[in-house]
Design brief:
Largest sheet: 6 strands, parallel
Helix content: 25-40%
Strand order of the largest sheet: 3-2-1-4-5-6
Order of helices and strands: EHEHEEHEEHHHEHEHEHEHEHEHH
Number of domains: 2
Number of helices: 13
Strand content: 15-25%
């Protein structure tokens, strides 16, 4: 029997990127069954790997100043570096990995062994998951790229079923005569600036319409989105009917909550990718980012993409819009409501009240 050799994976920093990198992690594990792999991840995203049920050890990354006391990385011969930053490559050097696989970006090529050339735009399938897969292929860690099939690429997340049921009980409408127990979650923010965010008054109008029709509406998000979520709730016609849980949930509870609802309406964000991974239908709103590159890897029939037609400047990928935010402003409440209706009332003719 061959002795196990060890390797480590430095995880992306953001929730959505972590989920989009899971196909590459899965492919790496399948291609190297003789190795034992540890993933090094920020505490805020580390538990995603446990929910993905991949055969990995997980080491939360400590604060930069306390590096490199990482038990799982001490004997690492090889480190796969998914983040593009200079700091990530420097961390690989400090960990003592002899082979440090990463893209030659951010003037960090001299820290990498090998420094993998960045793919030429258009040379790969569009989805971001192939950016991570191609790093492994060019480094000789996987033999070839898989087909661009969202269903096959998707790595599911499995939140604790008891948490999911607990959230379902908490969120289901208790009002007599409420619709049918439908629950809709709204993720109203996005990391990296306001350009990716649909207009607050549109989210508020949508929340009000759904609530009026007996749907339980809950706003989800992180600490940074508390104020935005509060504003949207107060803009809704009957704010007392809207639950605001932005900043109130752990990662585990956020994933379980999204698994418990019937539909998530979200900007291009981490929770959007969570919905795809747990099997919840998602209505994904895209403006400055490219929906072909970062759509959630959802089960067949559970993704509905919404974009504004005829906006020539998208996708600009800017964090803040320098003009009039037309890519998100031109997405109407009626457009989004129609997609939500198609999910919640797929087998019924919807009657407007």
């Amino acid at each position: 029997m061959r002795a196990l050799t060890t390797g480590a994976i430095l995880a992306p920093n953001w929730l959505g990127d972590v989920i989009m990198s899971l196909p590459a992690v899965s492919a790496l594990l399948a291609a190297t069954p003789e190795r034992s792999w540890t993933v090094l991840a920020r505490p805020g995203v580390a538990n995603i790997y446990g929910m993905a049920r991949l055969p990995l050890q997980v080491e939360p990354l400590p604060h930069r100043r306390s590096l490199p006391r990482l038990a799982g990385a001490k004997a690492t011969r090889e480190l796969v570096i998914f983040p593009n930053s200079f700091h990530a490559a420097l961390l690989g050097l400090r960990l003592g990995a002899r082979r440090r696989v990463g893209y030659a970006r951010d003037r960090r090529g001299w820290l990498l062994k090998p420094a993998v050339p960045v793919p030429v735009p258009g040379s790969l399938p569009a989805h971001e998951s192939f950016y991570y897969l191609e790093l492994l292929r060019r480094a000789g860690l996987v033999a070839e790229l898989p087909a661009e099939d969202p269903v096959r690429l998707r790595v599911p997340l499995y939140p604790d079923p008891s948490r999911v049921q607990r959230w379902r009980r908490k969120l289901v409408p208790a009002t007599p005569g409420a619709d049918t127990g439908h629950i809709a979650a709204l993720h109203v923010g996005a990391s990296g600036g306001t350009a990716k965010c649909w207009l607050p008054e549109r989210f508020a109008e949508l929340a009000g319409e759904l609530s009026r029709r007996g749907v339980s509406v809950v706003i989800v998000g992180g600490n940074a989105e508390r104020e935005l979520a509060r504003k949207i709730r107060m803009l809704a016609p009957h704010p007392e009917q809207i639950k605001n849980l932005a900043g109130e949930t752990s990662l585990e509870d956020l994933v379980a909550l999204i698994a418990a609802v019937d539909v998530l309406v979200a900007n291009d964000s981490g929770p959007m990718h969570v919905a795809g991974a747990v099997g919840t239908p998602v209505v994904a709103l895209f403006g400055p980012t490219n929906e072909k590159a970062t759509y959630p890897l959802a089960e067949a029939g559970k993704l509905r993409l919404v974009t504004a037609a005829g906006v020539a400047c998208r996708p600009c990928k800017l964090h803040e819009c320098p003009i009039d935010h037309r890519c998100m402003g031109n997405i109407s409440v009626a457009q989004v409501r129609a997609e939500v209706d198609a999910v919640l009332w797929a087998d019924k003719k919807v009657t407007r009240r």
